[in-house]
Write a structure and sequence with these properties.
Number of domains: 1
Order of helices and strands: HEEEEEEEEE
Distance between the termini: 70 Å
Strand content: 35-45%
Structural class: mainly beta
Helix content: 10-25%
Shape: elongated
Number of helices: 1
Largest sheet: 6 strands, mixed
Keywords: Signal
Bound molecules: 2-acetamido-2-deoxy-beta-D-glucopyranose
CATH class: Mainly Beta
Signal peptide: 1-19
Mean pLDDT: 85
């Protein structure tokens, strides 16, 4: 009996904790596009659409990571910025020339950019 009571209290607490989840905000990346060409080592601009943010965002701290061939690499191009900024400048990584690079923008969750080209080494 005691166990059952404790369990139901736990369940109630858990339900309360989850009752008002923050709103997941996943702004689409608008630049780079699939026709973008970056140059290794150059400062380039990343933009994303913040025209429709919800009132509550669970995580406003943004981070951009580099992707290659559909794999998110540990390379962080920018972090600790406000997801509502909508744009940030990053330095294009030193990579070999290729067209299967992309980015992932993290806030509440990850949003991929289209694949784009980097003119590299
Ligand atoms: C690039 O994006 C445009 C607009 O979303 C789309 O129409 C086009 O098919 C894309 N091209 C490639 C090669 O994915
Ligand atoms: C936003 O947060 C406030 C305060 O925590 C809450 O009262 C409100 O219901 C939330 N709105 C949404 C859409 O989650």
């Amino acid at each position: 009996m005691k166990t059952a009571l404790a369990l139901s209290i736990l369940t109630a607490l858990f339900a309360t904790a989850n009752a008002s989840p923050g709103v997941v905000f996943t702004p689409p990346v608008t630049d780079p596009t699939n026709t973008t060409v970056w140059t290794s080592g150059q400062v380039e601009t990343v933009t994303w659409d913040v025209s429709n943010p919800p009132a509550n965002i669970t995580n406003r701290i943004g981070r951009i990571q580099f992707r290659f061939d559909d794999i998110t690499t540990p390379l962080v191009l920018a972090d600790n910025f406000d997801i509502l900024l909508g744009t940030i400048q990053v330095t294009a990584p030193l990579v070999i020339t290729g067209s299967d690079y992309s980015l992932v923008l993290f806030g509440d969750s990850g949003n991929f950019s289209p694949e784009f080209t980097i003119n590299g080494l």
